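Schema walk-through. Below, the input block comes first and the output block second. Nothing else is stored per chain. Lengths vary across the set, and this one has 1192 residues.
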Amino acid sequence: MGVRFTKEQQQVIDLRNRNILVSAAAGSGKTAVLVERIITRLTKDASPLNVDQLLIVTFTEAAASEMKERIHSAIEKALMEQPDNVHLQQQATLIHQAQITTIHKFCLSVIREHFHTIDLDPGFRVGEEGELKLLRQDVVCDVLEQAFEEATPEFLSFVECFSTGKDDKNLEELILRLYEFSRSYPNPDTWLTLCAQQYDIGSGEELEAKAYVQEFLDEVRENLQYMKSLLEHGIKVCREEQGPIAYEKTLQSDLEQIELLCAAKGFTEMKRAITHIEWQKLGSNRGIIVDDVKLLQVKDIRDEVKGYIKKLVENYFYDELENLAEDMSAVHGNMRMLTGLVARFAEQFAEEKRKKNLIDFSDMEQYALQILTREENGNFVPSEVAESYQQKFAEVMIDEYQDSNYVQEAILTSVSGVSNGVYNIFMVGDVKQSIYRFRLSRPELFMEKFNSYSTLDSEKQRIDLHKNFRSRKEVLDSTNFVFQQIMVPRLGGIDYDDKAALYVGADYEEKPDKEAEVLLIEVPESKAKERIEVEAEAIARRIKSLMAGHTVFDKKTGEYRPVRYGDMVILTRSAKGWTESFSKVLGDAGIPTYACSQEGYFETPEIQIALNYLQVLDNPRQDIPLTAVLTSMFAQITSEELAIIRSSNQEKTMYDCICHYAKYGQNKVIKERLEQFLSTLNYYRNRVPYMAIHVLLWQILEETGYRDYVSALPGGEQRAANLEMLVEKAVAFEGTSYKGLFNFVRYMEQLKKYAVDYGEANLMDENADVVSLMTIHKSKGLEFPIVFVAGMGKQFNMQDTKKSLVLHSELGIGVDAIDPIARTKTTTFLKKMIQLREARETTAEELRVLYVAMTRAKEKLILTGTVADLAKEVDKCAVLQGYEGTQLPYYHLAKAVKYMDWILPALYRDSCMRSEIPFVIKKITLEDLAEQEAEEQLVNLITKDVLQQWDTDVVYASEMKQQIAEQFSYVYPFENSQVVKQKLSVSELKKRMYMEQEGEEIFKEEDVIPLLPKFLQEETELTGASRGTAYHKLLELLDFSKDYEEDSLLVTIEKFVSEGFLSEEMAACIDICDIQSFLRSSIGKRVQAASRRGTYHAEQPFVMSFDANRIYTDADEAQSVLVQGIVDVYFEEDGQLVVLDYKTDRVREASELVERYHTQLDYYAEALHKLTGKPVKEKVIYSFALHEEISC
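--- output ---
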C-alpha cells in the first residue's frame, strides 16, 4: 500500500510552472514530500525530466547524501517494475552526477567550471580552517603596520579612540569581525560604505527622520499602550471589593501622564513629556479592609510602569536630539577609517589567498556570485554563465530556505528562470525553525515571501503544511499551548495562530503517563554554583522512574515495548559546562550516556602538556610552558624541586636555571632528571628543521613513552584517542601553506583562541543503548521518543549586544563616541538602537530554538529548569492577572532573559494553575532529591541483604533453569575450525611440526603482555633472535662478488652504520671471525661464485596456498591455508637450485639444527620450485655457532 498524502502535501507534489514556498511545520513530512515531488518529476510526469535538470540545494552534506540515496532507491524500485524503460535507465546513470548538493558545493562546482571568468588559477584549493585563521592574522597585522607607517592624523585619532591595552589586538579583532560580517552581503564594499554614511548626521531633525528612530518610537508607543492597559486594570482592581481604593487617584494621575506620552508625535516631543513626569505618592488605605493580594497586585503594576519609564529615560531619552546627532557626527571620521581598513584588509587578504592559490568558504559564495551575476543600476542580473545554467535547470529546489542569506538568494535566483519570467523556484522551510542567525542566515527572506505569496493558485504560491506526523497529541498540545502565547510576529517572525499551530497526523494508541511535564527544580542562591549538577540529578531520577515501567512505540515491530536508554535525549542550549556535568552525574547514577557534542579538547591535561612540549621545542625560553613540562611526565620535577632549581639562579630565565642546575646542581636526583630532560629536548630540537610535524609528534609520543603513560592513567583510552587526534591535526596542518613547528604552534593557538574546539575524541557508538546528550542545534532534523529539554533557567547569551562594536544587518555598525582629550566615552544613539534591535533578534532566535527543542519529542516531552525561589517567580506573573489576550504582551516577551521567563507566565498567568494546562507541573527541592537518594540507598541495602541470604538450592523457575543450563552447556559445532589460521609463517609451521614430533600439546598462544609498560622498560643489549637479525642483515647487505679481508670487512660494516643500514647495537654484536669463517667455507665460496655469475638471490619472499588438512588433521577438506616466508639465500648451479639458511642458534650438534629446521627448508624448496619451475638439488644450513655447513 502506497503512502497517503494530505491534500496540501499532494499540492506540493503536483503543482508546476510557478514559484512555490512551502511553509512546513515541524514533523510535517517535508523531506518525504520533497523527495516525492522529485520522483514524480523524474518518473511520472507526462514529460519526465532528467535528474541532472534539477538543482537541489540542501543545508548539510548529510542531508544531500540522504536525499540522493532516497531518489536513487526510488529510481531502482521503478526500474525493477519497468526494466526496459530507457528513461529510468538514464536516471540511474545520471543520479551520480546530479546536482543534489549544499550551496557551497554548488558554488565550488560553478567556480571549477568557470574559473577563467574571474581570472582564478584552476589549481586552487579550499583552505583549511586553521590555515585561514593564521593567514587572516598575518594580513591584518600587515594592514595595521602599513597604517602605522603612514601615520595619518585620521588613523592616529582612530587608534587613540579604539585601541585598548598595550597592543593592537582590539583593532585586529574589530577589523576581522567586521570583515566576516560584511561577507554575507552580495556587495560587501557597498555595505561598508553605507555603514560609514549612517554617521554623517548634520542635525537633530535629520536624526529624527531616520527610519530606525521611527521604528523605535513605534515600539515605545506599543509598550506605552500596554502600560496604559496595566494602569487601567490597576484602577479596576482598586475599585473592586476590598481593593486598595486609596491608590486609585495616584494611578489615575499616572494614566494621564502615560496618555500624554502616547500622544507625543516625535522624539523631541516625547522626550519633553517623559522628562516632566512626576510620580505621586500612593495614598494610605488606613481604616479600610484591603485584600493583601490586590494591594500587592496594584503595587506591582505601578512598579512595572515606573520601571519602564525610568529605563526609557536612562537609556534613550537622556539627551537632546542635537547632542545625540553631534555625538554621531563626531564618530563619522573614525567610521570611515574603520571601514577603509576593513576594505584594505579584504583586498590584501584576497591577494594573499591568490598567491597561495586557495579560497575560503565565503569566497565560494562571492566568486560564484561574480561568475553568475553582473551589476546593473545597483541590481544583480544574470550573466551569460547564469543564462547557460538557466537553460540547464528546469527547477531550482531549496531545502531549509529559512536559513538562506542574501548572497545565496542572489546566486540561486540567478540560475533560475525568474529573470525571463519563468517561475521555477521551489522553496521549503519553516521560519519557526530558523536557528542559524550566528551563521548570518536571514529568516526575513523567508518571511518576505511568506507574506507576499498567495495561498491561491498563482505564479507565486504558498502552501502551508501543518499536520505533524511525528508526535503524540500530548506533545503537540503542550507545544501549541506555549507558543500560542509567546510567539508573535515581532518576536519569532510569525504569528502563532491556528494556521501556524501543529495538528495531529500520527496515529498513537492512548497510553498513561504521556503528558508533557515541567520539572521546576528549586535551588537556593547559596547553591547556585551547583544548579547544573542538581538539575542533572533530578533528570537522572526521572529517567530511572521512566525505565521502571514506561513504554514507547516501536516502528519496526509495530508494537509497544519497554523504554530503553537509547530512546531518550537530553537537549541543552550549549555543550559547554553542561555535557561534562550531566555525563558525570548520570554516570554516577548508573545511567550510560553518549555526548554527541563535546567541548574542552584544548583543556584536557594530556593535550595541554603535549602542546606545551611543542612550544618548548620551538623556543625553550618560555617560562610558563617550560614549567608545565618540567612538572609533567617528561621531567617528573616536583613543586619543591622546582623551587630549588629556580632559587639557584633567580636572575635568569627558567631555561637558564635548569641548564645551570644540570651542570652545577647539588641534588644528584634532580640533576640526573634535568640532564636526561635536556638531552631528550635537544635530540628532538635537532630533528625539528627536517622532520614533518606529525612524524616528529608521533616519535615524541612513542619514544618518550608519553602516549603509554597517559594510557595508563584513569580514562587512558580517551586520553590516548585525544593525542591521536592531535597527530591528525598535525597531518592536516602539513597540507596547508604554512610549514614548521613555530607555525604549527600558532595554528593550534588560533584554533583555541577562536573556539574551534574539536571536542574530545568520542569512543562510544552513538547507536548504543545510551541516553544521548546533545545541543538543540545538533538535534535539528532529528526525533526521539522521550525528550528532556534542560537548562530552562539558564540565561540567554547576550554578549554580542555588550561589545564595543555591535553589528546589524540593516542598521550597520554601532560604536561609541570617544573623546580622547576629555577621556570620555558616550554610547551613540545608533549603537543604542542596534543594541536594542540585536537584543530583540537574539531573543527571537532563542524563541525559535525553544520551538525546535520541544518539537523533537515523539511521545513524551519533559522541560526542566532551576529557579532560586519558585514563589517569587510566580509572584512576578501577578502583573499579568486579568490580561485577556491569548498572546502574552510583547513587552513581557521581549524582556525575557531565559526560557523560564516565557514558560512560567504561560503556566501561571492566572495566579493559579488552570485545569486546561496540558502539562504536569512538578516542583522539586533539594530535600526531595536527598529523600529520594536515601530511599534508593535503603532499597539497595535491602536488595543486597536479600541476595546474600538467597537459598540457591531452591528452584524458583524450572523453565528458566533449564534454559540457562542449555545455554551454558552449548558446544560450538565448528570448534575445530577455530584453530585453523588463514595465514601462517614458515616459522610458525616449523614450530608446530617440531612440537608434534616431540609429542607436545599444541595450544593457542596468547599475546604476551609485558609486566612493565614500554615507557618503564630499560634498554637491553641484543641477544638471541636479535643477534640473528644482525647477522642476517649484514649478510643481506654484503656484496659477495667482492673479496673481504678483516680490515675491509670492518670498514664495510662502519659504512653500513654511518649510512643507517645497520644500528650501532647490531654492529656491536657481530663477530668478524664468524663472518670470515663463513666466507672461507665451501658454501661461502659457492655463494661468491654464484654472485659473480649473477645467479645469487637473497631475501626472497613467497606466499603459497596449501590444503588445510595437510597441516591441521581435523580441518575441512575445502579449507586452504596461506603459508608465507622469506628465503635467506638461494643460488643456481647447473640449472638446479641450492637453498641456504643462516642459523645463529647455540647448539652442540648439527643434528639438532636438522631436526628443528628441516620442515622449514622443505617448504622453502617447494616454494622455490613453484616460483621458478626449477628443481632444488640441495638444502643447506650454515651454523655460525658450529662454523660448519649442514645438508638437510
